[in-house]
Design brief:
mainly alpha, two-stranded antiparallel ribbon, 72% helix, 12 helices, ABC transporter involved in vitamin B12 uptake, BtuC, 2 strands
Length: 325
């Protein structure tokens, strides 16, 4: 049944891809709308990977965009400063995929170094440590001239197109879903519900927390690499605290412990943010006011839908089994 549900999910996803690709080819969807869709898919990767840490394992990380920064800069250094590759031939895209994976692995290694000494902490203490880590990464990058320092790493080739981002997001969702519904996933959930009881039944809670943290960091690095090669630059301000909060809001608004919720919130909040920017600009109101409207809407969600949009539930086609099973 797991394989059948995976095939069904892939079919639905390919239908979505075909519709977007066709509409863009016909001019129904503009390049700008396609860009927002690409951003939404990247936020799907970032939100689902953070949900693995915060939603499914019950930790509270505020350093997720620090891992994205590692992935963006490592992959950008390889494609821009070392290999000097440009889009245009299959070989360059192979090198880009290698660079993206190297960025993800680098982020995972950093996650391992951070996670081993800190994941014995809980709650606010872990949040403070991961917040400090994110600021350390941003400050270090800001002071390295080789990667542009405060100017950012410019001239990154635009390898991130709709096809590559879509395939990466699809694989991310499938891999995280299969992980969550595996024995490791059940261990993550047990830690979230009661870490003491988990220890008593033989779950190595520190080890499982580190595994979730490292996997989440890997996919954050992948998302950061895609973002850098979509915007053709990597700047320290792109990976600061506010960007982490934005991804965190997607997780909580979509529903803690719900992959479906993270997908819906990533698309909904990305389009909402851009829609408010356009609307306020059209009526002559300062664009900064969009954040006020954005915040009010989020407060309403938290007041009247405390468990988020999906409330921990999943779309049926995302489950590896039927609900009655």
């Amino acid at each position: 049944m797991r394989n059948k549900k995976t095939i069904l999910f892939i079919v639905y996803s390919l239908i979505f891809y075909a519709i977007i690709f066709l509409f863009h080819s016909l001019g129904i969807i503009s390049d700008y709308i396609l860009h927002i869709i690409n951003l939404s898919l990247i936020y799907v990767i970032l939100a689902t990977s953070l949900n693995l840490i915060n939603g499914f394992t019950g930790q509270f990380s505020l350093g997720h965009m620090g891992f994205a920064a590692v992935g963006a800069y490592i992959s950008g250094i390889l494609t821009t400063l070392i290999w000097h590759i440009k889009p245009g031939n299959p070989g360059s895209y192979v090198l880009f995929i290698i660079a993206m994976l190297v960025g993800g692995v680098a982020a995972a290694l950093v996650g391992l170094l951070i996670g081993l000494p800190t994941l014995r902490l809980r709650g606010d203490y872990l949040a403070i440590v991961t917040l400090g880590f994110g600021e350390i990464i941003r400050t270090i990058i800001n002071n390295i001239d080789y990667v542009g320092g405060p100017r950012g790493l410019l001239g990154i080739p635009k390898f991130s197109n709709f096809t590559i981002i879509f395939i990466t997001a699809l694989l991310t969702v499938i891999l995280l879903r299969n992980l969550i519904f595996s024995s490791h996933g059940r261990a993550f959930l047990s830690i979230r519900e009661d870490p003491i009881a988990s220890e008593l039944v033989g779950v190595n809670t520190t080890r499982q927390k580190v595994i979730a943290f490292v996997i989440g960091a890997f996919f954050a690095g992948i998302g950061g690499a895609l973002l850098g090669h979509l915007l053709t630059l990597a700047h320290p301000t792109q990976y600061g605290f506010m960007q982490t909060v934005m991804v965190l809001v997607m997780v909580y608004a979509g529903g803690m412990g719900s992959i479906s919720g993270s997908i819906v919130a990533a698309f909904g909040l990305t389009f909402l943010s851009e829609g408010l920017r356009i609307l306020l600009g059209a009526i002559g109101v300062a664009i900064e006011w969009r954040m006020v409207v954005y915040a009010v809407l989020l407060i309403m969600i938290m007041l009247f839908r405390t468990s988020g949009i999906m409330g921990g539930r999943e779309f049926n086609f995302l489950l590896p089994f039927n609900k009655e099973e």
